[in-house]
Amino acid sequence: MASTGIRDRVAIVGMGCTAFGEHWDKGVSDLLIESSTAAMTSAGVTREDIDAYWLGTMGSGTSGLTLSRALRLDNKPVTRLENFCATGSEALRNACYAVASGAYDMAMAIGVEKLKDSGFSGLVPTPVPGDGTGSDLTAPAAFSLLAPAYARRYGVDDAELKDVLARIASKNHHNGARNPRAQFRKEVSRETVCAAPLVAGALGVFDCSGVSDGSAAAIVVRAEDAHRYTDKPIYVKGLSFVAGPATGTSDPAYDYTTFPEVVASARDAYRQAGVTDPRRELALAEVHDCFTPTELVLMEDLGFADRGFGWKEVLAGTYELGGDLPVNPDGGLKAFGHPIGASGLRMMFECWLQLRHEAPPERRIASVDAGRTLALTHNLGGRPGECVSFVSVVGSEPSA
Amino acid sequence: MAGGLFTWPSDEPRLIGSERDGVISFPARPGEQEHLLGRRGTLWSFTTQQFRPPSPPYDGQDTAETFAPYALGYVELPGELLVQGRLTEADPAKLAIGQEMELTVVPYTTRPDGTEVLTFAFMPVGGADEQEQDGDA
User: What are the residue ranges of helices labelled H in A197-273?
Assistant: First the structure.
């Protein structure tokens, strides 16, 4: 038994991503057509070249017909899947493994979500029959529990922690202001973040990610075929996905200062990719900043900071656009927006742009020019104590 | 809001759980031995809900305009389990992890047919009179 991975066996050769935001004038099909067409154009291929599709959407469509109808596919295999907020990453993982298996020469992973049409500014849960023992906190309330837990464990006072969280929000808005596809394109000061109306616990409006419509897509081929489609393929180094035992909310030993699922998936992905020092080896990381305390905790769970020191690294600017390890240089869920099924592939789209030196000059990061060739995406689904976690490592160079 | 969650009417309401092979559950599972949970525990963690949650599952009769923020938390009942529920104290400055809490019953909503619906909540031990007034408000 081993999670051996598929290091350097497949590569991404084309990507597309719509603007995220309020697309009142576009339906799910329009968004799927826009992102898939952009991905096919960037790889120089057509629908006929693609052998199979994985469509990730949490609730904007059911079955493969959601995609095959939009693209008028001619009896191709299309799998629709859902894995909470990690849905887009799960589409990519399945497409990569399908190509690595030899079953298909070319696969597309595509994610889409249309959230604004619900009329509710937040996620509307799908009712699932249960025995009533489940936690029924709203998402911001559940994630708000991280902040006081972290402050208490590491002796950070509440005001200082609020400043740390405000820096994370402000950083991601700073980056989003430099991203034409982002939902929120204005810089937001720490003072504004701190003065915002409260949503849950200590979390205000600016501590929460954007609720948006959008779609993103990737085309995957075997690594040895990659140069037929692009001079700058992005090689898949490691893909790890775990579903936790979901015992955290009823386990007094779980203290809300870590996501054990993230630690497990990061360890697995790093091992597959041969990464031993992520903080120094990665050029950038796109992480699941659904709420500001999540990004703080992730810095430690992903090995970007020692336990209890993530907040100091945030204050030191380590994860800013010009820092040692830029995190969410595209604005993240916070500013780019969070159309659930598309988010994991949107993260990969930023890695694609940055590692290929194609990011706009105003948000280009120095670490790539300095010779770092690896990037990480991290996608979380669920809530503290009961979640799924995905970590990928990709790179612009095949291993020697 | 399901029925059968707590003993009522009662001056000292208890949550109705169940037990089998030493494992305690709340709400009670069908077919298991009834087990009335202890009334006091410690506040394990808490937060506040500042906006009206999506409906369903939320089924209060209030609107986004009339919604009143509330606190909710997990209370650890010693030797039993963690229970999530509303707290009668909505001001987080007056709550602290580890403080002693006691079960109470508070109004939840009034159905269109006039039926008053009650729910369980935890109130800080000490200031009980004041807390009960908050719960009724």
Answer: 260-273
Reported as type and span, the H/E element at residue B105 is strand B100-110
**Average predicted confidence (pLDDT) for chain A:** 95
Domain with B81, as residue range(s), is: 40-136
Q: Which residues of B touch A142 (CB under 8 A)?
A: 47
Tens of pLDDT along B57-94? Answer: 788 888 889 999 999 999 999 999 999 999 999 998 99
Whether residue B10 is contained in a domain is answered as no
Cβ distance A200 to B2 less than 8 Å, yes or no, reads no
CA distances to A263, A292, A305, A354, B119 from A314, rounded to whole Å, are 19, 11, 10, 22, 42
Residue of B nearest to A249 (CA): B82
The answer to whether B76 contacts chain A (CB < 8 Å) is: yes
Q: Does the CB of B51 have a partner CB in chain A at under 8 Å? A: yes
From B50, B56, B84, residue closest to A200, measured CB to CB: B50
Active site residue A338: yes
Q: How many domains does chain B have?
A: 1
Domains in chain A (CATH in brackets) are 10-119+213-233 (3.40.47.10), 140-209+235-395 (3.40.47.10)
For residues B117 and B2, the answer to whether their CB atoms sit within 8 Å is no
H/E segment holding residue A163: helix A158-176
Cα distance between residue A314 and residue A323, in whole Å: 10
Q: How far is CA A397 from the centre of its chain?
A: 22
The strand pair at A106-114 and A213-222 is best described as antiparallel
Q: Is residue B127, in this structure, part of any structural domain at all?
A: yes
The two tokens of residue A86 are: 């990690």
Q: Which residues on B lie below 8 Å from A122 (Cβ)? A: 51, 54
CA pair distance A105, A97, nearest whole angstrom? 11
Would residue B84 count as lying in a domain?
yes
Q: From residue A67, how far is each of A33, A76, A118, A150, A369 by CA, in Å?
A: 9, 10, 21, 42, 38
Closest by CA position to B79, among listed B133, B38, B136: B38
Among A15, A68, A47, residue whose Cα is nearest residue A215:
A15
Closest CA to A37 of A182, A216, A183, A179: A216
ipTM: 0.73
**Could you tell me which chain B residue has the CA closest to the CA of A199?**
B50
Neighbouring C-beta atoms of residue A6, cutoff 10 Å: 18
Structure letter (DSSP) for residue A58:
S
Q: Average pLDDT of A324-336?
A: 98
Q: Choosing from A17, A23, A85, A288, which is the catalytic residue?
A: A85
Question: Tokens in use for A316?
Answer: 């030191």
Is residue B45 situated within a structural domain? yes
For residue range B100-134, list pLDDT tens digits in order.
999 999 998 888 898 999 999 999 998 544 444 34
